[in-house]
Amino acid sequence: MGQTPAKQQRGILQMILGGASRIDLVRQFARLTPATIINNRYPSLALLKKKHGQEKVEGVLSILLVEASQAFETQFDEETALAVSAEVASTFYYYSLEDCYYVLQQLKKSKQYGKLTENKVLAAFAEYEKQRLKDAEEMNYNNHLAEKENPDTLDREVKPLKDVQWKTFTKKQSEKL
Fold this sequence. Notes:
Blueprint: H1 12-17, H2 22-29, H3 34-40, H4 45-52, H5 54-69, H6 78-91, H7 97-109, H8 118-149, H9 171-176
Helix pairs in contact: 4-5, 5-6, 5-7, 7-8
């Protein structure tokens, strides 16, 4: 598409496993947006589970959940956080931990009062899915318009029509395709 991926930075998994504090995470990921998450191409939860193991990934996600729940009247205990993280990781396996961090930070900033429940967390992830799809669609459309206006920057080879070999098919041959 003519874009180069952004420089890969340390992900949340590496930071938490490396002993990073909450403050370190906030400093590193405070300006996350769905667009920056998509452009940085962070690995999905499914890929992380394959590489590092399900327990480790869900454990890191549960740490994020417990941290987010501290902004609410009642906090998640470890067992609840692990259950919610298992459900999130199984349902939204195509998200990255950075996506999850973003969703949980947005949940903390929202006008949700009282107790944080599993339902509120899952609803926030479902709402984020709509926003992320809309943002990705908009990014693709903007890239399309940019390429359309600047065709010289395309990374593909354009062949003149005279060099293309045309094939004609009989009706029987085309039915086999």
